[in-house]
Specification:
CATH class of the largest domain: Alpha Beta
Strand content: 5-15%
Order of helices and strands: EHEHEEHHEEHEHEHEHEHEHHH
Radius of gyration: 21 Å
Largest sheet: 6 strands, parallel
CATH topology of the largest domain: Rossmann fold
Oligomer: single chain
Helix content: 25-40%
Structural class: alpha/beta
CATH superfamily of the largest domain: Glycogen Phosphorylase B
Strand order of the largest sheet: 2-1-3-4-5-6
C-alpha cells in the first residue's frame, strides 16, 4: 500500500470514452476521471475504439505497453471488463470496474443473451480473476463474479453542479419547447434493443387515450443539455430490460424529476421511499401507462435530490482512491 502523501498515478483504460459529435451515455467515465483528478490523482486516460474487432484490441494492447514503458504508473484501472484485456498480462496492479452488460451479457431484441454477449461475459469474468480489485456499480452484479474475486460496490456518481433543478419554463425556453404540453422523457438509445423504446412508445400511446402527453427523446442531445431536458419534462419513463446502475434514473432524481420505471438494475433501491415516483409491477404497456397517468395527474416534482445525496461523485471518488491505495505498488522512487 502506498502512503497518503504519494500522488497516485493511474492509467485508466476504456473503449467507451465520450467524444465530441458522437452520441454516448458514458459521460460517467469522464466525470469519474475528472473528480479523481480534482482529488489529487494523476489520471492518464487511454481510450481506444474496440468495436468488437480483435485487431483494434491488439493495436490498443501494443499502445498500452508503449505508454507503460514511457511513464511509471502505480496501477491500471480498466473501465468495463473488455478494456481490462489491454492490461494483461499484468505489469501493474489492476482495478476493473464492471458496469452492466460486460458481466450480464448483451441481449437480442427477445431478451436472450447473444453469442457475442456470452463471449463478453467470459472475457470479463476471466479479467476479473486476474484483477487485484474489482468494482461493480450495483449489488445485484456481484453474483456474476466468482466468490474469490475481491469486489467492491461503488455506483457511478453524480455531478450535482450539472444535474440540478431548473425552473420548467426556463428549461423549455432553452430547448424551444412549448410550455403548454406534457412531456415524458426517454433518454436511452432507441436503436438499442435492451432499452425497449418501443415499450415506452406503446405505453405513451395507451396513456394518450385518457391523457395527452408527448414522448420526448433526449438521445443524441449535447450532454450539458440533458439537465434541461430533465427539468423540461414532466416525468422520466424508463423501460430497459437490463441495466447495472442506470445513471439516467439517478440524474433525473437529482433534478427532482418523477421517474416511472420497470424493475431493473438498482432502480428499486433508488426509487425506494421517493414519494411521487412509480415502480411498475410488470412490463405491460398498460401498467406503465397507468403509472405515468398517476404521476402526470399529481403534477408535482419529487424530493429526489435528497434521496441521491450519497451519490455525490466527490465522495465516491474517495472510495475509489481507497481501493487504489490498497492495491498500488510503492513507487515513490519514480516520483
Amino acid at each position: 500500500m502506498i502512503s497518503h502523501d504519494t500522488i497516485i498515478r493511474v492509467l485508466m483504460i476504456t473503449s467507451a470514452w465520450p467524444t465530441p459529435g458522437r452520441a454516448r451515455t458514458t459521460y460517467f467515465i469522464r466525470r469519474q476521471a475528472e473528480f479523481l483528478q480534482a482529488a489529487g490523482v494523476d489520471v492518464d486516460v487511454f481510450h481506444f475504439e474496440g468495436a468488437k474487432r480483435p485487431w483494434n484490441y491488439l493495436l490498443g494492447w501494443l499502445r498500452v505497453r508503449l505508454r507503460m514503458a514511457r511513464k511509471r504508473y502505480h496501477l491500471a484501472h480498466a473501465q468495463f471488463g473488455q478494456s481490462g484485456l489491454l492490461a494483461l498480462p499484468k505489469g501493474l496492479p489492476l482495478v476493473v470496474t464492471f458496469r452492466g452488460d460486460d458481466l450480464q451479457g448483451m441481449l437480442d431484441p427477445n431478451g436472450r443473451i447473444t453469442l457475442a454477449g456470452r463471449l463478453l461475459q467470459l472475457v470479463s469474468q476471466g479479467v476479473a480473476r486476474c484483477a487485484d480489485a474489482t468494482i461493480v456499480v450495483s449489488e445485484h452484479m456481484k453474483p456474476f463474479l466468482h466468490a474469490s474475486v475481491p469486489t467492491h460496490v461503488i455506483p457511478s456518481g453524480l455531478d450535482f453542479g450539472l444535474f440540478r433543478p431548473i425552473p420548467q419554463d426556463e428549461a423549455r425556453r432553452h430547448l424551444g419547447l412549448p410550455v403548454d404540453k406534457r412531456f415524458l422523457l426517454f433518454v436511452g438509445n432507441p436503436e438499442l434493443p435492451r432499452k425497449r423504446y418501443d415499450l415506452a412508445r406503446q405505453a405513451v400511446d395507451v396513456l394518450n387515450r385518457s391523457l395527452s402527453a408527448e414522448l420526448l427523446v433526449g438521445w443524441g442531445a449535447p450532454h450539458d443539455d440533458i439537465p434541461f431536458y430533465m427539468n423540461a419534462a414532466d416525468a422520466l419513463v424508463f423501460t430497459s430490460r437490463q441495466e447495472g446502475s442506470p445513471n439516467v434514473v439517478k440524474e433525473a432524481l437529482a433534478c427532482n424529476l418523477p421517474v416511472v420505471s420497470v424493475r431493473v438494475g438498482d432502480v428499486p433501491l433508488r426509487l425506494q421511499n421517493v414519494e411521487g415516483c412509480e415502480l411498475c409491477d410488470d412490463d405491460r404497456p398498460e401498467t406503465i401507462a397507468a403509472a405515468l397517468e398517476r404521476v402526470l395527474r399529481r403534477n408535482r416534482r419529487v424530493a429526489g435530490r435528497d434521496a441521491v445525496r450519497d451519490l455525490d461523485e466527490q465522495r465516491l471518488a474517495q472510495e475509489v482512491i481507497s481501493i487504489y491505495r490498497s492495491v498500488a505498488l510503492p513507487r515513490e522512487s519514480a516520483s
